[in-house]
Every structure is written in C-alpha cells, then in structure tokens.
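Study this fold:
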Amino acid sequence: ELDRTAVAEASALLDTGRTGTVALSEDGSHCPGGLTLLVEASVPPPRMIVFGAVDFAAALVRAGKFLGHHVTVCDARPVFATPARFPEADEVVVDWPHRYLRRTRTDARTVLCVLTHEARFDVPLLTEALRMPVAFVGAMGSRRTHEDRTRRLREAGLGDRELDRLRSPIGLDLGARTPEETALS
C-alpha cells in the first residue's frame, strides 16, 4: 500500500511540474512521523512558437522570454527571419511554418502565435496547429481577417470543434497601438 500511495502522490506532483514533499506512514496513510518523500520536478520551460517575423513578433518574443518560455520565431522568408532582428529569441527558423510545426516538438504547454497575415501561410499552419494538443493557438488579424480565415479553414476540412480552439483576433482588445502594447494584450 505504501508503494502505491507513494507513486500516486509523486505522480500527481510531477504531472503538474511541481516540487514538494509527501509525508506517509508505513501503511500509506498521510501522517507525520513516518516516511517523507522529496519529489523534485525538472521540466523544460514551456515553448512559445511565433510564426511570422513581423515587427510585432519582436515585442512578443520579449514578453514570452519574460514569462519564462523557450521562444522560437519561424518564417519562410529569410530576409525577415534573422537572429539580428530577434536577438532575444532562443531560435530563429527559416522554414514554411506548417512544415516546421509538423517536425518540431510540442506538448500541452506549447503556445502557438500566428502573426503571418497571409492565407498561403495561415491556412496550412492553422490546419496543423488546431489538430494538435497544444495549450494555445492564436492568430493576429482583424475580425474581418478572422472571418475570411475561418471560411478558408472550413474549406480545408476543419470543423467547429477545431475552430473553437482558435483565439483570433489574438489577445485582448486593449486599444493597443505599439508592438509592445499588442504583445502585452
């Protein structure tokens, strides 16, 4: 019983990425004076992948780094996707966004921010992204852009369940004017 309880308690802490102690008695009940287990979780930082090496992306990269994310910028255009433009990014990748997303590691803590503004990038990328078990998928653009994007995604075969996961326009409407204000929202 002690082993089963210890494994269950340790797993609960590890699943949430938390470090902590668990006090157990020999019969597996929770009480002080018995066995104390230290469970130390060591998880990589959550990922933020920013698709579209646009001006707003630099501010979003800084915000992501401030929040402790491992930040990647991906764009198919080598003239825009450069380490010089995004010095705070952990990685700058030149590749088609949907192709990069298919081959990179994601998990339930991964955040995907789509800033590309072009259907040739957005539709294949979001078709992949909205079918993945990631924490967040957001796309920048006006409400009109979102309506057009949604129509194109439906034509690509996505249903209501997948489209409900898309946060667009990305963020909160705070009346942002600067890239930093937009990144914060």
In short: The chain has a mean pLDDT of 86.
